Structure formats: structure tokens, C-alpha cells
Amino acid sequence: MVSSFVPDPYYAGARLPLIWLCLRGKKPFRDGRAIKGPNLDMTEYIAQVLVDSGKIAPQVWDFKLVWMRGPNPDQMGRRLNAGDTLLQYILEPASTRHADDKTTEEAHLCEAVASKFTLQQLCHRNALGICALSYAEQHCRNTGPAWQQGAWTRVRDAIKFNMMMRCQECTPPLEEFVWIVTDLRQSSLAAGAHNGDELGETEHLQEVIHAFEDLLWQLADKARQQWLGMGWRFKSKTASHWTKEVLEYYQHLAGNGSY
Hints:
The protein is mainly alpha-helical.
């Protein structure tokens, strides 16, 4: 298993998975321009080989950039791309002025990473509350479907497809799934309210949310049947409201951080 961590080139004392150093460099803050080294094509190829090998250790997939003291006063003393997964790091920024920073090799890598990520990793929100799908679909909206032979459209679709598939393959328990759906709703709101990266495009994320909400209702209905089987009673006297009552109960717990 490949799990090597190496020193972060921007922050003393911090460490990154080796595969991260095979990606394009960029300024360590939001909407940062790319810093492309002379051997970028080779390092991106190495990253692709590592991902395709299936030998990446779980802690590498789980790795996220953390808040740290920055080396320069103009960085406000904090790492402003905190909370990014590997997918989010590659996809951000989605702004038009940085469209040329991303390569087709990175797009291929994103597709491979999306196929490896768990549902929770695919839905993860960074420090700004943005998930990877929001970055991907805004980048596609800004550049058009034919940009780099449609490579980034395939990335967007791969992230969306794998989110749906993970949910079908291994549906989380109701109490955990409420968290996931709540997070995605918040991610959509955060994308719509975010100005710095032009993240107003959420059509594909909304499709995922609606599909997850349908499944969430089905899980709540199963819980309703279980509650009745245990002799529990509901506040409402109308049976058609009981499933909603179950869902509201779990949503209340999620909203209060009670799990």
C-alpha cells in the first residue's frame, strides 16, 4: 500500500501524501493560480499510475488539507484551501480566468479518484462548505462541454454517477444518511452564496439531492414500520404524516448534532 507522507512545501511541519506532490502546484489559498513545474506531465502520469494500481492506502483517500499558520502576512495567517480532498484540490478554482490551469491528465485522474472515493468522501464539504461536484459543474459551465475534448464534462458526470452508485451499493443507516443529505443541501446553499469562485451552477448537485431525498423518505418509511412493530405511537393521528414525523425526528437530531 502506498501511504508515504512527505513535507508540505508551503507549510513547515506539515505533511502531505506523496501523491499530492504529483499534482500541479498552486498558490496555497483560494482561487490561487497554478505553479507548474517542468516535469508536470511526468508527475501527473505517476499519480495516475498510483491511483490505477489500487494500492493507495485508506489514509491517503481520507486526507484533507488542514488549517495552518501561513508563511506570509498576506495569506492572513491561515491556509485558505483548508478542508480540500484530493478531488477538491484539483477542481478548485473553477473560475474562468484559471480554466487553462487544469490539464486533461488531471481530468483523467479525477475520474479515477471519483471511482475510488466513498460516498462520504464524494459528498465532503471543505472549509467553505463546497463539495467537489459543485466545483466540477461550475468549471464545465464556464468552459463549455467541448473544453479539452469534453474531459471535464466526464469528470462532472463521473462524480455524480459515483455518488449515485455508492448510495445504491451500500445505503447508509437512516441516522447517517440524514447527515449526508443535510450536508449536500448546505453545500448547495454555500455554492449559491459564494462569489469568489463563481459557483452559481448547482443543477447536477440538485439532481443528486433530489434522488437522495427520495431514498431518505423510503428509509424513514421503513423506520416508521419498525416503530409501529415495537408498539411506539406517533403524535399525529393521521397515518400519512407518520413517515414525515420519523424524518423530522432524525433531522432534528442531525441539526442539533445529537448523533
